[in-house]
Amino acid sequence: MTTWDALLDIFENKKATLVQIGANDGISHGDESLYDTIKRNSAWKKILIEPVEENMNLLRTNYKDVENVFFEQVAIGNEESVETMYINTVGNDGGLFGALSTFKKDITERFFGHVTFKREDIEVKPFSYILDKYNINEIDILQSDTEGYDGVILNQILDLGIFPKILKVETGFMSGAEATRILEILRDQGYIILQFSPDLIAGR
Fold first, then answer.
1. Where do the domains of the chain lie, and which CATH numbers do they carry?
2. What is the helix (H) or strand (E) element at residue 70, kind and residue range?
3. 94 falls in which pLDDT band (50, 70, 90)?
4. At a CB cut-off of 8 Å and minimum separation 6, what does 7 contact?
C-alpha cells in the first residue's frame, strides 16, 4: 500500500469532499487505486476537474455508474480566461504518453520533444468558481496533476484559506520559489510533509 492509499483509508466509509484536478480519464497514469477508492465510497462528494474534452468524455464513461460525482470541464488558473493548451491524447503516438497536457510550451519542448502535441483552446476559471458552485468551505482530499501548473493552483487554493486535510500534488515542474512558499505555508498550518518528490504528499 502506498503512502497516499494509506491516507485515503482514513476517509473510508466516511463523508468527505474530494477534488481531483487534472483527473484525466480517471483510471490511467497511476490513478487506478484512487478510482477504485472513489467507486467504493458513495458518501464522498467527488468533484473531478479535467479540461480536455476527449479525456472528459472518457472520464464520464468510466464513472457513469458512480454516485455523487460531479464533472467540470475547465482548467484552474488565476483568472477567468481562454488559454492555449498543448495536448497529447491517447490516440496519438500509439498511446505512448497518452493524455499528457500542459499550458507550458517549454515543458513540451524540454521534456517531450519527441511527442506530438496539438493545440486546443481551454476554458480557465479560478478555484473560487469551484468553491462557489459546489458550496464548499473545506476539502478533505485534494489531488492535482497538471504538468507544470500545480504550484500556481495550490498557491491559489491556500491563499483562499482552503487547507485540505490530505493532499497529493505533482512537484516535478514546480519552480523553487513555488515549492518553498508552499512548504512554508503548509508547515505553518501544521501539515506533516510525508513526501515531496515526485509528488508532494501531506496531511494535517
1. 3-81+125-203 (3.40.50.150)
2. strand 69-72
3. very low
4. 166, 194, 201, 203
